[in-house]
Amino acid sequence: MVQAKDIMSRKVITITEDETLKEAIDLLTTHRFGGLPVVDEEGLLKGAINITDIVQYAKKIDEKPLVNLSRWFSSRSEDVDMFYSSKSREAMKKALVKEAMTENIITAGAEEPMQELAKMMKRHRTNRIHIVDEEGQVVGIVTRSDIVLGISKPQ
């Protein structure tokens, strides 16, 4: 039986809740991720920040819709091009991850069967499951792509 530990990404890049949204955006675009685990100073999982969280936060700052989202999160975009208005741009440089992150996220252990991970993703409408150890530290991430690849693994 394929388990989380067999398909998870182990090189997890995290961000702390006291870093800025600008730093989160830089990590997301540099690594082409859809989201990042948010950890405290001890490395314990506190939540996650994803592109949707950032877009929703930007909408609270500036009611005008964002334009050209594909370019908005392109690694080739200039900092000044990232947001529709200067008001949003400046706010992202100062706003902290903890202001926009999602705190209640879905986690599982490394022994969780792949089939259960897929069910959890569907049930909770999420694209990723954070894999944590007994202390609550992130040891991996399983995405929908990992599930698809896991299906093709010989059992």
Could you please describe the fold and organization of this structure?
The protein has about 160 residues and is of the alpha/beta class. The protein has a single domain (about 5-150), classed as Roll (CBS-domain), CATH 3.10.580.10. Helix content is about 40%, strand content about 15%. The protein is built from eight helices and six strands, in the order αβαββααααβαββα. It has helices at about 5, 20-30, 50-60, 70, 85-95, 95-100, 115-125, 145-150, and strands at about 15, 35-40, 45-50, 105-110, 130, 140-145. The strands form two sheets. It has a three-stranded mixed sheet with strand order 1-2-3. Helix 2 (about 20-30) links the parallel strand 1 and strand 2.
Defining key terms:
single chain, 155 residues, alpha/beta, CBS-domain, three-stranded mixed β-sheet, 6 strands, 40% helix, 17% strand, elongated
Task: Write down the secondary-structure element order.
Answer: HEHEEHHHHEHEEH
Work out the radius of gyration. 16 Å
How many H/I helical runs?
A: 8
Main sheet makeup: 3 strands, mixed
Number of domains: 1
CATH class: Alpha Beta
Secondary-structure arrangement, i.e. CATH architecture: Roll
Could you give me the name of the CATH homologous superfamily?
Answer: CBS-domain
Question: What gross morphology would you assign?
Answer: elongated
Q: Number of DSSP strands?
A: 6
Strand content: 15-25%
The third-level CATH topology is: CBS-domain
**Low-pLDDT residue intervals, each spanning 5 or more residues:** 65-84
The proportion of residues forming helix, as a percent range, comes to 40-55%
Category from helices, strands and their pairing: alpha/beta
**Roughly how many Å apart are the termini?**
6 Å
Q: How would you state the average pLDDT, rounded?
A: 84
Enumerate the strands of the largest sheet in spatial order, edge to edge or round the barrel: 1-2-3
